[in-house]
From TrEMBL:
Protein family per UniProt: Belongs to the relA/spoT family.
Protein name: guanosine-3',5'-bis(diphosphate) 3'-diphosphatase
GO MF entries: GTP diphosphokinase activity
Record's keyword terms, sorted: Hydrolase, Transferase
Organism in which the protein naturally occurs: Methylomonas defluvii
Length: 727
């Protein structure tokens, strides 16, 4: 490892080069809130970083050290502590130079080294795609964020400066970075309440990703400014005069909409630029919270409010801590006016978010609240990432979590629960507790029973109904919206599927070994280890899971175990029967033993099983046409039989020809119902004035039950012909 000598307290260099100018600018800002000893540490980090990056240059031609110092200047404007500033200056040292984390810890302490490591990308990732590499880096960053929030603040400042200085990059790389910024980093800044950084990232990202659209909207904004300045001044003066008349000490300011926000509004609402820019935006800044509500009354008295467009984020802050009153009014000339009313303190916190923790130390209580909200969000993300199958799944969950529009509902005890718009009962249940989500079967909204897929709306009181026997349903993934619910369901199903596959794999392997006169429990442990090594499996459970999922044939594994030399190739004799005893099934095993939809076998039918790689065993009717080709392959099928204890309801399909008379289907339905069965689906195949040919899917208990239903239907005068579909 290279050694870099660093003086204990170096003096500032003479101002000659751009990097030295940036260092002096940084030190000027630091002097406003740090003591000299801490500034000396920052300068020491600068000299270390400059030496480490010596000979490295950016595409613009400037020394590479200019970039980390610029990032440090952004953080200094947020009053970041000196360890955070040092980490910013050194944030690319581990990634781009031979310096190790251990060397950084030795020179500047463990705290700085951990911060730098949290921001550093993973250099060697065994990934199949660039997307996986990016996803793994974001996942690593979030793990580091959970330990120290300064990691993400440094990363956001780093990304902001990269976006500001990527003019010389190739177009494809520029677009890729811009897309990642808009999809991940700008929403993270928003989620952490750092609106100033978020707006800059959105504008720069939009400009890089859609340069032509940015130019067109920007030109339209400039052109419309002059035409509308008079209206803006009129409205602003009218609001200010009304506040003065009410003896309210409030300041009114017009604000220009972000170009990226204008585009998003045009896109989401499918409206033209003219319609978006007709919403004139103003902010009113007050000193006290009470004054905000009084100011709201003043503007509602001045211009008519639009019903349903008032939002009180002071009483119910957003998840990122944002507080403000929002209202839409109909102003002069019939144009809509957007008004935001907040205190000066709320405005400072809305612009800085978690950075307010360092920037406004006098407002400690409020900034601590924002910190607490951010930490709570990160704890939820940590829980999500633990159950995520891979980094891409984690990123998918993260994106769901980063784009919420909130709805507020109540628990039966009156506690307010905040959820994204479109959330369902299942999302609510998982937010209360993972165990509640896993066991939910229904719910009451305002004391009325509702199904689990019911979408929640503001003001609802929700009571979840659970049962000890209940478990998550894969269909829930079709309508849940929160990242936590999605990850918990996936994790449960993954673990359930894994255990089910292990149990089935054990049954299959034991059956094959028994046919060879061997008991699995009597097999020597040394031989098991040898077989696992040959098959490249780490544990017996991993091998059994592979068998249960149909990825490895149980007969071949059994033959290898029984061979004298486990390394020898497995040979099958032409006359050798691979399946001497059938596998007993109930038909309700779940995910890894499924009934084929082509022939819909039911208890009592003669059946055969086929290994479907990755999914387990698919059970077909013995007469199913789809099974003929697969049956020729000796090791891909096995004999299966129904267990005498097989119970439950199984789908069976019948084809019925009946007279096309009024009430015919009703007669069929009532007859089936009288036989203790239900119609799950009806498909009309053909129909004329005389005859209707229909396919009916029935829920039956077994072959005898179906035969009794068919016998009963045949007795009806309207039924001409009835047959069972076996594919």
């Amino acid at each position: 490892m290279p050694e870099i000598a660093v003086k204990p307290a170096p003096a500032l260099p003479a101002i000659e080069h751009p990097e030295e100018k940036l260092l002096h600018q940084l030190c000027e800002i630091l002097r406003s809130y740090l003591d000299q000893e801490q500034i000396n540490d920052v300068v020491r980090a600068y000299h270390f970083g400059a030496a480490a990056h010596s000979g490295q240059f950016r595409r613009s031609g400037e020394a590479y050290i200019c970039h980390p110092v610029s990032v440090a200047i952004t953080l200094a404007s947020m009053h970041m502590d000196h360890h955070g500033i040092m980490a910013a200056i050194l944030h690319d040292v581990i990634e781009d130079t031979p310096i190790s984390k251990e060397q950084l810890a030795e020179q500047f302490g463990v705290e700085v080294a951990e911060l730098v490591d949290g921001v550093t990308k993973l250099s060697k990732i065994d990934s199949r795609s660039r997307a996986e590499a990016q996803a793994e880096n974001v996942r690593k960053m979030f793990l580091a964020m959970a330990q120290d929030l300064r990691v993400i603040v440094v990363k956001l400042a780093d990304r902001l400066h990269n976006m500001q200085t990527m003019g010389n990059m190739p177009v494809d790389k520029k677009r890729r970075i811009a897309k990642e910024t808009l999809e991940i980093y700008a929403p993270i800044a928003n989620r952490l309440g750092m609106n100033d950084v978020r707006h800059q990232l959105e504008s720069l990202g939009f400009k890089a990703l859609y340069p032509n659209r940015y130019t067109a909207i920007n030109n339209a904004v400039k052109k419309s400014r002059g035409n509308r300045k008079e209206i803006i001044d009129t409205i602003q003066n009218a609001i200010q005069n009304r506040l003065n008349e009410s003896n309210l000490d409030g300041a009114v300011a017009g604000r220009e909409k972000n170009i990226a926000s204008i585009y998003q509004k045009m896109l989401s609402k499918r409206i033209s630029f003219t319609d978006v820019f007709d919403v004139y935006a103003f902010r009113i800044y007050c000193h006290q919270v009470d004054d905000c509500y009084r100011a709201l009354g003043c503007v509602h008295n001045l211009y008519k409010p639009v019903p349903g467009r008032f939002k009180d984020y002071i009483a119910l802050p957003k998840a990122n801590g944002y507080q403000s009153l929002h209202t839409i009014l109909i102003g002069p000339y019939g144009v809509p006016i957007e008004i935001q009313i907040r205190t000066h303190e709320m405005h400072r916190l809305s612009e800085s978010g978690i950075a307010a923790h360092w920037l406004y130390k006098s407002d400690n209580d409020k900034s601590e609240t924002i910190q607490a909200r951010a930490n709570e969000w990160l704890r939820d993300l940590l829980e999500i990432q633990k159950s995520a199958g891979d980094s891409l799944e984690f990123i998918d969950n993260l994106k769901v979590d980063l784009f919420p529009q909130e709805v507020f509902v109540f628990t039966p005890k009156g506690k307010i629960i905040k959820l994204p718009r479109g959330a369902t009962i299942v999302d609510f249940a998982y937010l209360v507790h993972t165990d509640v989500g896993n066991a939910c079967i229904s719910a009451r909204i305002d004391k009325k029973l509702v199904p689990l897929q019911t979408k929640l709306e503001n003001g609802m009181t929700v009571e979840v109904i659970t049962a000890t026997w209940a478990r998550p349903n894969p269909l829930w993934l079709n309508y849940v919206t929160t990242a936590k619910a999605r990850s918990c369901i996936r994790a449960y199903l993954k673990n359930f599927n894994q255990q089910e596959a292990i149990n089935l794999g054990r049954r299959l392997l034991e059956k094959e070994l028994q046919s060879l006169g061997i008991q699995l429990e009597n097999v020597d442990n040394t031989r098991i280890i040898q077989v696992l090594q040959v098959l490249k499996k780490h544990s017996m459970n991993e091998l059994l899971e592979d068998i249960g999922l149909g990825n490895r044939m149980p007969f071949l594994v059994a033959k290898r175990i029984s061979q004298t030399d486990v390394n020898a190739a497995v040979k099958l004799d032409d006359n050798e029967s691979t399946h001497k005893t059938p596998l007993i099934i109930k038909g309700t095993e779940g995910i890894v033993v499924s009934l084929a939809k082509c022939c819909r076998p039911i208890p009592g039918d003669s059946i055969i099983g086929f290994f479907n790689p990755g999914k387990g065993i698919v059970v077909h009717h013995h007469e199913c046409r789809n099974s003929n080709e697969v049956r020729k392959k000796q090791t891909t099928w096995l004999d299966v039989e129904w267990s005498p204890e097989a119970s439950g309801e199984f789908p069976a399909e019948i084809r019925i020809e009946l007279l096309n008379q009024r009430g015919s289907l009703a007669t069929i339905a009532s007859t089936i119902s009288s036989m203790d069965s239900n119609i799950e689906n009806i498909t009309v195949v053909s129909q004329d004035d005389r005859v209707s040919v229909d396919l009916l899917t029935l829920a039956v208990k077994d072959r005898v039950h179906l035969a009794n239903i068919i016998r009963k239907l045949k007795k009806l005068s309207i039924v001409l012909k009835i047959t069972r579909i076996k594919a």
